Amino acid sequence: VLEPALGIFGVAVNVANIVIFARIGLNESINVSFCALSVTDLLFLVCSGVINLFIAMGTYIPQAMVWVNMHALSGYLTWYRHILFDTSTCIHTYIAVARCCCVAMPLKFKNVFTVRRALVVFFIFLSANFASHMPLLLSHGLTWVYNPKLNITQLNTWFYDEWTFYRRINDIANRTIFPIVALLISIICAAILTRELIRASKRREQMTRSSTPYALTRSA
């Protein structure tokens, strides 16, 4: 019960975010970045909802009544959900790096993170995630299979012998190494950003204190 409610809430929030950023204007890199993040998160949630629906149908509807193996179909779509999730992770990391660079070294990176470059980077993220999952996607698929137990032909999954090997590689690279690296980059960027903001706050305090005696002297 909780998972569908959270999914619906997430869809509503991301749709609202997309509308808000579209109304604000997509002429700045940061707005485009957050809008793209909302789009990928929205697609991820929709895909997750469809997968959960198929799982529920496969659990509660007798298989003899349907022509599709719902559990197999949900498992096939799971990899596309992973692609969307990994793309969202890449965009989140990009936002962290961009904010860190613009705050820590604003003069050097002022004109680096443009709207056009952000769109190109996001397209590269999506393409790279598809490419990294391509061996796994091409080593299995959907086909019509006769089920002798139910005496019906159902849409089911087929697998090449190499599928298990590709899945192990995918689990190591995409499910273990990649999220750890992305998390470490985000933590480092957050630490640098926090340090620079603290330094900027201290500099403003010093400037305020140094200008206060002069203001008091003029008023006297």
Automatic annotation (TrEMBL):
Transmembrane segments: 6-26, 38-62, 82-107, 119-138, 177-198
Subcellular location: Membrane
Annotated Gene Ontology cellular component terms: membrane
Residue ranges of domain G-protein coupled receptors family 1 profile in the record: 13-220
Pfam families reported for this sequence: 7TM_GPCR_Srx (PF10328)
Main location: membrane
Keywords noted in UniProt: Membrane, Transmembrane, Transmembrane helix
Matching SUPFAM superfamilies: Family A G protein-coupled receptor-like
Domain of life: Eukaryota
Listed InterPro entries: 7TM_GPCR_serpentine_rcpt_Srx, GPCR-Ligand_Int, GPCR_Rhodpsn_7TM
Coiled-coil spans in chain: none
Protein name: G-protein coupled receptors family 1 profile domain-containing protein
